[in-house]
Amino acid sequence: MALYNNADTEGLYAAEIVVVYEHLRKLYSAAWLIYQRSGGHPELKGDNHESDFSDSTALSAEAIALRTVCPDPTHAEKLALEELKDLILKRCPQVEMIVHLGTHPEPFTFYLLILTSNGDKTTEHELCNKIEDNCQYLARVHAIVHKVNSAKESLNIGERFWSMVISRGIILYQSEELVLPVVQEISRDLLLEGSRFNWERWGLQGMDFLKGAERYITYNNFRLAAFLLHQSVESVLKGIIQAVIGYRVQMHNISRLLSLSLLFTDELKNVFELNTAEGAKIFALLQNAYSQSRYNSTFDPDEESVRILLTLVKKLNHLAERIYKQFIEAMN
Predict the structure, then answer these.
(1) d(Cα 203, Cα 282) in Å, to the nearest integer?
(2) In the chain, what percentage of residues exceed pLDDT 70?
(3) Among 37, 139, 141, 192, whose Cα sits 20 to 30 Å from the Cα of 61?
(4) Is the entire prediction scored with pTM above 0.85?
């Protein structure tokens, strides 16, 4: 998920301002760590209301608005979807079905389920990238790509996500040769059982990773703490996505998981405040923590950044748990 003027000769260029800003931040961070250590007990800058995140970590008791997969495109969106469909079929003739799952206003994104022929040698991941890259000149697209057989198997065993999208999604294209199994009715008890299983498998695992991260912070091992914070976010997002919409997540990319969560709520993504410089910086640390911890022997995140990240990951865990409990209560 990407984050997206000339001065006179006597002034500073934009790049120079960035360098000065980064040096000031480093000096400030060093001064803060000295203050913490001399004070005898560590604390977050947020404790003194100096962090951009200090006021954002409190959780509201209000109910969280959850959306369902039930697209209702405007006339303009319908025209755009028609163009996207034509472009996808032109560039990827192996596609056998395109379903519109929903549209998110900010960042404006079309969510499309795409089924491709079983004989296609292109992996789902490669085809997904190809579709999204080709469509970016028309509109931002989040593509969920599967082989036809995968969809048929999921429909045959009554998987909730597949039953929901085929019955509620808007079918933009279906090849004449493609015949899908009849959508099965899923009982409330089975829905509850599936949601509970997925949350207990992944959501609770994410909370355990969080506990591990807190322990490593007390040991001043910020490298392993960052690694476990990444694992916590990945697990919790998998858990809440599978609990709420029933989609079996097989990806590890946190940006993509957050993007997928926008199908039913904005709250999870909003935790990271990606529209701010501080939020983008901390999120970059989170995204890279897994690979950097494993493969880069020089990876050594600073204490302040890891502690800020810990605060955000705690908030994400608590928020996901609230969403899960609210979802279960609504089904009872």
Answers:
(1) 22
(2) 82
(3) 192
(4) no
**One-letter amino acid of 279:** G
Q: Which residue has the higher pLDDT, 19 or 236?
A: 236
The domain that holds 307 is classified in CATH as 1.20.120.330
Check whether residue 163 and residue 196 sit in a common domain.
Answer: no
The rounded distance, in Å, linking the Cα atoms of 63 and 75 is: 31
Encoded tokens for 125: 């991941």
158 and 101 in a single domain? The answer is: yes
**Residue type at position 134:** N
pLDDT at 59: 56
β partners of residue 173: 98
* Domains identified in the chain, total number: 2
For residue 67, name the pLDDT band (cuts at 50, 70, 90).
Answer: confident
- Picking from 213, 176, 216, 184, the residue whose alpha carbon sits closest to that of residue 310 is 213
Distance in angstroms (rounded) separating the CA atoms of residues 133 and 141: 9
Does 44 map to a domain? no
- Asked whether the CA dihedral 42, 45, 49, 54 is positive or negative, the reply is negative
CA–CA gap between residue 104 and residue 106 (Å, rounded): 6
- Can you tell me the distance from the alpha carbon of 214 to that of 139, in angstroms, rounded to the nearest whole number? 41
| pLDDT top residue among 153 and 16 | 153
DSSP 8-class letter at 274: T
DSSP per residue over 86-135, as a string? HHHHHH-TTEEEEEEEEEEETTEEEEEEEEE-TT--S-HHHHHHHHHHHH
Distance between CA atoms of 101 and 71, rounded to whole angstroms? 6
C-alpha 109/C-alpha 139 separation (Å) is: 7
Boundary (domain end) residue, out of 174, 206, 226: 174
CB 308 within 8 A of CB 51: yes
Residues written for the chain: 332
Of 114, 149, 174, which closes a domain? Answer: 174
CA angle 32, 33, 34 (to 5 degrees): 90
Choose between 203 and 23: higher pLDDT: 203
